Amino acid sequence: MTKIGYARVSTTDQDLEVQLAKLKAQGCEIIRSEKVSGASRDGRRELKTVIDFLRPGDELMVARLDRLGRDTRDVLNIIHDCEQKGAFVTVLDPYVSTQGDMGHLVITVLGMVAQMERRFIKDRQRDGIERAKTNGIYKGGKRRIDREGVLALKHGGMTPTQIAAEVGCSRMQVYRILNHQ
Known about the structure:
InterPro entries: Homeodomain-like_sf, Recombinase_CS, Resolv_N, Resolvase-like_N_sf, Resolvase_HTH_dom, SSR_resolvase. The chain is of the alpha/beta class. It contains seven helices and five strands.
């Protein structure tokens, strides 16, 4: 049995260190991490690698359930994929494992609560933006990536993968910029 850790943050300016430290403290022999949105499984290459690597008896560990995904169905599908390989999933905070029957129930409920919480956050954010627009103070989100720099690198002959590595962002972000020139 191998303990395999998976850590994820949504943006390049967020830090993975707390998750990595928790996974190491739990004895994870292999830890894969990435900086990509958890809204869906698209673009989550490290998660795919972990799931592909799982063997019977292995344990996939995550610091929190929302590191696996933001949508209950996605989380349950990921857990199902792990179980199809004979592996199980353990969430460290709060501690719950799919190794027992009760773990499935608890993870399902936690996933539903996390999804509901995400909807509440989005609703409050949308309300705040609307209020700010009404008051004339909304300026939009802060740009984290130099769009002109990305375009210049593309015109200089770099591939999206090379640009992403150079700028420190995901290829998805590069493609978004390139598609909206």
